[in-house]
Amino acid sequence: MGWPRDLRLQPPRLRRIEPAWKRGWRKYRLAAAVGASAIGWYTADSLRHRREGAFGYEIATEVEVASEDFLRAAEALTGAPITTGNEAELLINGDRIFPAFLETIQSAERTLNVQTYVYWRGEIAAEIAAAIGEKAKAGVRCNVVLDALGAAKMERSLVSEMEAAGVKVILFRPPKPYAIRRVANRTHRRLLVADGRVGMTGGVGIAAEWTGDAEDPDHWRDTHVRVRGPVVRGMQGAFAENWLEGTGEVLAGEQYLPELEPVADGGPMQLVRSSAKVGDTNAEALYYLAIASARSSIELTAAYFVPRPAFTDALCAAAARGVEVRILVPGPHIDKGFVRVAGRAAYDELLEAGVRLFEFQPTMLHAKTLSVDGSWSSVGTVNFDNRSFQLHDEVTLCVWDERFCGELREAFERDLERAEEFDPDRWRRRGLLQRASEAASTLLRREL
User: Fold this and answer.
1) What are the DSSP calls for 64-83, one per residue?
2) How far apart are the C-alpha atoms of 323 and 273, rounded to whole Å?
3) Which of 30, 65, 179, 185 could form a disulfide with 376 if both were Cys (CB 3.0 to 4.6 A apart)?
4) Mean pLDDT across the stretch 401-425?
5) Confidence (pTM)
């Protein structure tokens, strides 16, 4: 009788000891694979951002923004028609923006389209949701587009209340594993269109932060416009573009696209919409055209100012040919501090060229406006950074009107009274740590 198999003497087994580096590799190979994939994705996506290199722009023939030549160039470059007989009402801060917003909602008789990137919390968020719901109950066709990431902090009960009232609400581009490359491509548009006849756009978000009159850090500074005239059709088109993507439904018919008569004494305007793509977007090309065409003044208000080299060069070139270039950006209350650091990487070159830089002190500055030579203005959702120029769906209203430009300049001058100007000598004496952080931030410029 033999020994049980498990009790028989077995020859000793030699255990092979792996080198330490190989054990470390086995432990971290998953993380390494993820990192390699991320680098590959980033590199593969870089075609969209070829402008991060030495590629800039030039204008074949000089034009002035007040000329017919500029109007034709802006129309041809962006594909956005220029219409006449339009009027724009400039609205500064929540105390004036939200009453006009609610009034426009209440004026709708057949259709109401609302789109926003930011829909957060606060009494105004509930008030606007209730106002839209009331119109739906009254038989108005109400459509709402909320960016899935921008509206992430919104109380879902407000969506449920609107839907219960008959409002059709969609969350635009919710993140999905198979579309990870598109997660940064958001709709940053803010649009309100009533009956296809009255439209609003600008920087304001629907949240408590935008209420008030920029009186303290809890109440932000922003600019919006309300528009009447044929240009409203462009606003409706920008909404319809995102609505089609989100629902597959084409918004057509007289209830959405009525015949729009010119407003008496109204002027030429253009609603430019821009979307992420490979190559230069409409917003990017338009802004460069306007800056390169400036002859006397540029007033830029930018909530997020992180210019790529071509735009830094364009602003410096404008200052070199005698244009008064003034740029207003957020100060200590900016909601994204890393953007402020990244934007400052361009300050040396700008200040050296004679560009004047100001930081708004009382609260977060969220406005997005550009005025050139006192005759052309842009008010909309476009920030002066790569996200707006390359990654987001945006809209901006372009106005050729000296009166409107004058109102925008008056608001700009009032803001400068509450801002701190950069002193070039003092800026040059900043510390090495600050310089290092600015230099490091340029590596992330394409994502800011």
Assistant:
1) -TTSHHHHHHHHHHH-PPEE
2) 28
3) 65
4) 96
5) 0.86
